[in-house]
Amino acid sequence: MFHQHRLELKRWAVTFLSNHKTLFSFLWMLAFASVFLWQRRNFDELLAFKRPPLMPIPKLRPVSFNITDFGAVGDGVTDNTVAFERAVAAIAKVSKKGGGQLNVPPGFWLTCPFNLTSHFTLFLAHDAVILGVDDEKKWPLMPPLPSYGYGREHPGPRYGSLIHGQNLKDVVITGHNGTIDGQGQTWWKKYRQKLLNHTRGPLVQIMWSSDIIISNITLRNSPFWTLHPYDCKNVTIRNVTILAPVLEAPNTDGIDPDSCEDMVIEDCYISVGDDGIAIKSGWDQYGIAYGRPSKNILIRNLVVRSMVSAGVSIGSEMSGGVSNVTVENVLIWSSRRAVRIKTAPGRGGYVRHITYRNLTFDEVRVGIVIKTDYNEHPDEDYDPKALPIIEDISFTSIHGQGVRVPVRIHGSEDIPIKNITFRDISIGISYKKKRIFQCAYVQGRVIGTIFPAPCENLDLYDENGKLVRPSSSQNITDIDYNI
């Protein structure tokens, strides 16, 4: 009986496999199942390895308006300021019922600066462009920021932002990658010609607010800093493209978290004429008195370019303190500097508990920079004895190519850099004539083998945490700004 079953099974298999269509279908299903199982396993492993924190989902608004409901015309010529103001006022009236959404359809919607309201969603359709008027006479003047005490470029008042908000809650700016364009070319030209009497305004500025989401839009050609959250909590910036010419677009920082707390910046592309991201918290004695730190900030999954300044900066205005910042999974390409911390005597404050990991530098002049003599001050009343503290900084898994100076840590006798750690560093260099891992007044450690060879200021440990070579002197100075 068993022998007969074997013969029948063999006969069935031969018949099945002799049919080419059946064989092809069987192999195709087998391959598909294998790939599906492989992808499912790897996807599950990826989720287990890095599961992003749950973020609040924007609420669907009970009321929705179209900007054309208020008489707006998207021809790039008509001034739609009144239409935007009426739309915001209409949504403010329903804020207690969950707020409203303002839809901006395709077109070019010229406007002067306008204010947002709470429980508000601004939704920009694909091919929708909000254009800022380029006549500074139509931009309102505002007092200087209390933590700066100065307009940053001029004493006294400063220009407001194109899209502005204060003391708000639950604001969403999103869309199908629509654009907010500040038409900054006129501003940049007048700034270079010294024809402006007040500090230029940001493109988007939200102050003293919470629960802010900015996603799936493009911001471009800001007159000054592009996106400036000031003293805000619970801010998410995701899938945002920020663009300005990489040359001759002065001070067009991408994102400037300023005295902000609990913030995520992720999945963005930034190419601008100054710092891609610059974390701030006030300027000298004004920032010390204001006393609001920037803290608990996660920056990840970015591509950044800055030919004038740095991809990701902390400072130099950091007088309220900066702490608990993580920068990970970032590519910085074709830039002057990659990541930088900058401060000076007179700032006070601190920069501590900063983690950099999984960074890639591609064609960058200087990779890692800590600078303690960035001597720009609002006025002569700052206290030169207000010395900042820089400590507990770690760099892990930093790689790259075409970098002229991979590391430049310039502490000073008054502002030493404390407890800095380097691990898994391999940066291909484009300049080999002199030592290019530069240090001054820095205390810390190197774990394992890194390239290029570290400076002698740092203790050397093996991968198991065993001390191999203590530093010869933490005060050795080997800084050469000519390289």
Task: Give the SSE map.
Blueprint (H helix, E strand, L loop, with lengths): L1 H17 L1 H30 L13 E4 L14 H12 L7 E5 L2 E5 L2 E2 L4 E5 L3 E5 L8 E2 L15 E2 L3 E4 L2 E7 L2 E4 L3 H8 L11 E4 L2 E11 L6 E4 L2 E11 L17 E12 L4 E3 L4 H7 L3 E13 L3 E5 L7 E21 L7 E22 L17 E15 L1 E6 L6 E13 L7 E4 L1 E6 L11 E3 L5 E3 L14
Parallel strand pairs: 1-2, 2-5, 3-6, 4-9, 5-10, 6-11, 9-12, 10-13, 11-13, 12-14, 13-15, 15-16, 16-18, 17-19, 18-20, 19-20, 20-21, 21-22, 21-23, 22-24, 23-25, 24-26, 26-27
Antiparallel strand pairs: 7-8, 27-28
Keywords:
5 helices; four-stranded parallel sheet; elongated; alpha/beta; disordered N terminus; 483 residues; 22-stranded mixed sheet; 42% strand
What does this structure look like?
It is a single chain. This protein has 483 residues and is an alpha/beta fold. The chain contains five helices and 28 strands. The protein has helices spanning 2-18, 20-49, 81-92, 185-192, 284-290; strands at 63-66, 100-104, 107-111, 114-115, 120-124, 128-132, 141-142, 158-159, 163-166, 169-175, 178-181, 204-207, 210-220, 227-230, 233-243, 261-272, 277-279, 294-306, 310-314, 322-342, 350-371, 389-403, 405-410, 417-429, 437-440, 442-447, 459-461, 467-469. The strands form three sheets. It has a 22-stranded mixed beta sheet that branches. The longest helix has 30 residues, at 20-49. The radius of gyration is 27 Å and the shape is elongated. The relative contact order is 0.06. Residues 1-7 and 9-58 have low confidence and may be disordered. Keywords: Glycosidase, Hydrolase, Membrane, Transmembrane, Transmembrane helix. The chain crosses the membrane at residues 21-38. Belongs to the glycosyl hydrolase 28 family. It holds the Pfam family Pect-lyase_RHGA_epim.
